[in-house]
tRNA modification GTPase MnmE (Acetitomaculum ruminis DSM 5522), 453 residues
Amino acid sequence: MTEDTIAAFATPLSSAGIGIVRISGENSINIIKKIFVPYKKDTKEFQTYTAHYGFIYDGDKKIDEVIILVMKGPHSYTREDVIEINCHGGILVMKNILELVLKSGARMALPGEFTKRAFLNGRIDLTAAEAVMDLINSQNQYALDNALSNVAGKLNKKIKGLREEIITETAFLECALDDPEHYSLDGYSEKIEVKVKNLIKEIDCLIETFDNGKFVQDGIETIIVGKPNAGKSTLLNCLLGEEKAIVTDIPGTTRDINEQRLVLDGICLNMVDTAGIHDTDDVIESIGVKKSLELIEKADLILYVVDSSKELDENDKEIIDRIKEKNVIVLLNKMDISNNNTQLEKQFENIVSISAKNGEGIDNFINKLNDMFFSGNINFNEDVVISNVRHKNLLVKSKDSLELVLGAIYDGLPEDFYTVDLMDAYNFLGDIIGETFNDDLADNIFSKFCMGK
């Protein structure tokens, strides 16, 4: 447990009904006693999990009317004594209270330092700490559910189970090598081969969840492409439910990139409406077309909007050549006028007829989206799903180490060759949950947190 006491805003600094200033550390109680005057009770009576109404004073000057919450360690978020001052949410009021707390003996907390203390004091593991930030940043219910499950320790439990299997085999090997009279290794290579293969299979299952987990947490990078006046901006407005993109009958109205984030039936899309792709002599318009072509290369998903009332031309063929090897949903727009898709069926598997103007066919588009990215099932409540690239990389390293064990078995090497790679696999898994870590890693992870968390 660290010796100094930290403080920060726990809510955004804005004009709101309520603001919270959080204090954590061994001096929290003493600090609040210096500045808080309760309405009735003596501050000596502070008990854990209690709320107290009163006033914050700077000397004889009343600063604000507040309610303070007292949570004594180790039964608090940080496992230290924690005080939360619930004050009025005005910017000046909150600043005055925080400055008074700092003047009374606390120091300003670093980003994520409250959660870092929770980790260092053993309240949560590293995956739960990282999941706190995922929870804060969740943009849809599925991301929130996955973050909550990891805060509760679902990934931690899975990783600990894998490590337990590895260390059990390693311990037996070490004992057998040190005491061959009492522990036999006859037939052991066949036994551990099965065990290692099962471990690799379990780790592979976790690694395979990463893409979907990343899409759920961060959203699917989606670009809308098509010729001018195909209905791209109308589609974006239809999906958003409001007019965010300019829609006219004039070709080339969208000359720049229009970025929007939206959630469709729980699926988060980071949408980019691009300039219509076509040959043009207009300098500004050509810049927009160039940007559109660049974004195609980076997208997770391309929505190719086609005016189904018109025949495909050379501009369409250029677009098709650029996108045909990528994840594409072809949206045949203006289905209320025409529905001719025979030419595109030869090029693309995922084709949906829609009317961006009246919303017809959008449900079919969402179903197609779910099938493409989540195999028709986006409910991850029963599964462990990873969305953190650090976790994925360490799982890959652990798997690689286990495959080296298999290599040693297949090459007929002595059993003592297994132990080094088994322990490497064990330690890489330990790095995920923070069993082993260094200050640079901790600083890097928690520096991404917001102040006061």
Observations:
- The first strand starts at residue 6 and ends at 9.
- The radius of gyration is 29 Å.
- The domain at 220-374 is CATH 3.40.50.300 (Rossmann fold).
- The CA atoms of residues 401 and 421 lie 5 Å apart.
